[in-house]
Design a protein that fits this description.
three-stranded antiparallel beta sheet; single chain; Arc Repressor Mutant, subunit A; about 280 residues; alpha+beta
Amino acid sequence: MKPPLTKRALPEQLPSWGVLVLESHHSLEFVMEWRTHPFVKVVYVLSGRGTFFLGKNEQGFSPGDVIVVPSGTRNRIVDNPASAASLYVCCVARSLLRFDPTLGAQLPCRVLRRKGHFAHRVASVFRRMVHTQQSTTTRRPVTMVADAMKLIQMICERSGESPKSEKGLVDDRRRVQQYVDSLPGRFFEETSIDAAADQLDIPRRTFTKLFSEITGSTWLQHLRRLAIEHAQQRLRETEIPIASIAFECGFNDLSTFYRQFQKRCGMSPGEYRTSTGRNSRS
């Protein structure tokens, strides 16, 4: 069954918890008047092409793009004549962003071009929010707010990058170096080398070569080293269970953690903790 098509922009009435997601599937007769709203609006383009007017600026959009409209920004959409758009729209109340007065300045007012990993992550969050909004669970408000914050975080991170396609003066080595420098505080979040290369918008082969030149090791070896160094610190300075330390380090399997620790340290985590004067706990 095809979704209902709309000829007009949908009403944007936020619920009490401050997050609303709309599915806007346009007909070929779609028309949107100028709007200004007191909330942040994030638009994910599922299909179609057109132009987004943001204040005095206008930018074309295509599938996979993400449009960010800060609160108070006059805006409207004009579809291409033969390419009606299907959009997912997330509205986030300004009251949810008051905890950080700098967020307003971090949010761009533009179209963020499709970028593999970023586009997939945004689509995943939107998909989850649509399902949550349709549910009747009592956790719906907190889940919607949490996902909205995740969306805002991803947008701030993406807008702070300098993709080649937008600025053309990007030094791949510098960007990989910045990524390497950030790993001590995020190694436990990394999922794959492909995702890392995608995140930087650098071909995998180029990323792998530069990463090896900068660190002297492979991506996985470097992450494992950071994980074990973190584990050593926690074993020396705390008495929390070894299973908890393995979890902090990104290991879902305790036996893998023991094996990696033994390989790099020549002893088990318990033996290492005992050697530092801490009581071993499991």
